[in-house]
Amino acid sequence: MSLISGSPEPGRLAAFGWSPAVASAFEPFRADDLELARVAVAFGATFRVIAHDGEMLADLTGRLRHQAAGRRDLPAVGDWIALKRSTSEGGRGSIQAVLPRQSVFSRKVAGETTTEQIVAANVDVAFLMMSLDHDFNPRRIERYLAMTWQSGARPVILLNKADVAEALDDKVQEIAGSATGVPVHVISARDGRGMEALSPYLTAGQTIAVLGSSGVGKSTLINWLLGEDRLRTQEVRASDSRGRHTTTHRELVPLAGGAVLVDTPGMRELQLWSADSGVEEAFDDIAALAAGCFFANCGHATEPRCAVKAAVADGRLSPERLENYHKLGREQDMLAARQDGLAEQLAKKKLRAQFRAIRKQSQSRPKDRP
Ligand code: GDP
Ligand code: ZN
Asked: Which residues of 203-236 are buried (b: 16+ CB within 10 A; e: fewer)?
């Protein structure tokens, strides 16, 4: 095999979510001095990245920084990137481009203007966790579901604390009813019951995240998933450029089954950003009922001959569910208004410009491939 650019073999990346699909996504960026890597931690403008043969620190190129219209355009944990290695030994790499994201979890950052900060990119499966004790709240799961649909990740609902649950069957029924087509698993992260159902999601190439309110058992589940590797994975001993041992922190954590977990503080406190299509999917029963409303643009509030309100009246739809639907809709409208201005700016400065620049740069260089 001839030694061509990029990293033809996944190497270390195999434990960090690499898949043939990721390799294909890198193809348009392939150049003699660029290789595929993944962001494991973002500290402001410095990043710890994983490459096929190890880890290193990397900086943004000035171009990437200047062309970014907002934080959304900058690399985040979970991003696949085109990395250029420093030629000096032990030098830092530079991030030349961010590959298109398959999914994005983001949060709004409060301030004069709303800005969007990426919490994690390229999550494949989101475990939405809720406990079966007194914190049980189906409305909350609907919010997490809407957010997950919007992100592009696949939701899987985990009902935890099965060991202390009362009226378990009723609760499972209730959740299954409000989450059509979404897998629901009953587990106990404490005693391990039901956990075998998770293994199909934990295979190589899968990037996993755990979402849920405080106290539902996220840390307990994560510790269980890490198993014996726990101490080794989260704080890794690495050698710095002078051969000294240093302790480094990562927010991408390889799991025993081959998957990789995104574990960042921000992932635990996600708010809704925009869930336009997400709300419709999480409330597909309401969308189906709405087809029977007399007015095509019925808001299911004060309009006459509303099929949704009729369903509430005869018990087919719970009033709480309709109320939650309205509440989510109002939050979205407020956000959408603030986002309008932002969206326009973002459209002007697209990452494409960078990609073009990189291409041009690599074309103008003499070909050194056979
Ligand atoms: P987090 O805030 O979501 O990370 O929740 P933790 O993992 O810290 O768990 C909160 C509390 O719930 C702790 O006291 C755990 O021991 C307890 N807990 C977690 N999972 C279970 C479970 O399956 N059953 C029971 N009974 N308690 C659990
Ligand atoms: Zn209606």
From this structure: ebbbbbbbbbeeebbbeebbebbbeeeeeebeee
The answer to whether residues 83 and 230 belong to one domain is no
Instruction: Mark which of 61, 83, 98 sits at the end of a domain.
Output: 98
Q: Say if residues 268 and 218 touch (Cβ distance below 8 Å).
A: yes
Q: Regarding predicted confidence, which is higher, 227 or 252?
A: 252
What is the CA(172)–ligand 1 centre distance, in A? 19
Give nearest CA residue, ligand 1 atom 11: 215
pLDDT digits (tens, 9 = 90+) for 203-232: 999 999 999 887 888 888 988 888 754 444
The closest of 288, 276, 268 to 329, measured between CA atoms, is: 276
Domain that holds residue 299: 283-361
Nearest to 276 by CA among 339, 364, 191: 339
Q: Does residue 123 share a domain with residue 260? A: yes
* In a domain? residue 38: yes
Is residue 47 in a domain?
yes
Residue nearest to atom 12 of ligand 1 (CA): 217
Are 287 and 326 within one domain? Answer: yes
Q: Are residues 155 and 92 part of one domain?
A: no
Would residue 215 be called left, alpha or beta, if left means φ above 0 and alpha means ψ between -120 and 50 degrees? left
Three-state DSSP class for 363? helix
